[in-house]
Design brief:
The chain is α/β, with parallel strands linked by helices. It folds into 2 domains: 45 residues, Signal recognition particle alu RNA binding heterodimer, srp9/1 (2-Layer Sandwich), CATH 3.30.720; 108 residues, Signal recognition particle alu RNA binding heterodimer, srp9/1, CATH 3.30.720. It has a 4-stranded mixed sheet with strand order 1-4-3-2, covered by helices on one side. It has a 4-stranded mixed sheet with strand order 5-8-7-6. The longest helix is centred in the middle third of the chain and has 13 residues. The structure holds fe (ii) ion (FE2). Fe (ii) ion binds next to strand 5.
Length: 189
Amino acid sequence: MAVQPKLAHVVLQTGRLAEMREWYCALLDAHVVVEGDGFAFLTYDQEHHRIALVQPPFPVEPKSPLAAGMQHMAFTFDCLDDLLDRYSELAGRGLRPKVPVQHGVTTSLYYRDPDGNFVEFQSDNFPAPEQATAYMLGEEYARDPLGPVFDPQTMRTARADGATVDRLTSRAWALATQEQPADPASIWA
Ligand SMILES: [Fe+2]
């Protein structure tokens, strides 16, 4: 079997380097490793850089929703409580997810950076990858692969009040506690 490489870093081209640097440092609890004229390398763990930002010496066009390319990058937390802790920390600093979705397989918060790129924070709803795969091959997922939106603050409060992780990470809980948009695609706009 071939040796598989690990994901090392992501590089984003931007026209607002300083704003993007501050945003990613805040979101990921990251720090600048090295920066210079038109670039900043950030990390949040042992790797020398995880996110790099580059600002070319020409005007950068705004991200078009019609352009092909990356829809989002995703970071995973070990458990729902860790995800909700980070949610609260960030909300306290005015950073809120644009799109909170109960995918069923993961509980996901999508933040949108100043350029319009989405960054997903997730926690897995199943303890084993095989269970997650089985869920994604099942009927509920086939009917609606996206899943319902939910209110992370309501979830956080319910969790603090003793609601179980199993209950809070069900699609039924999201549907029972949050009005759903008529057009699910509109949530990304
Ligand atoms: Fe994702």
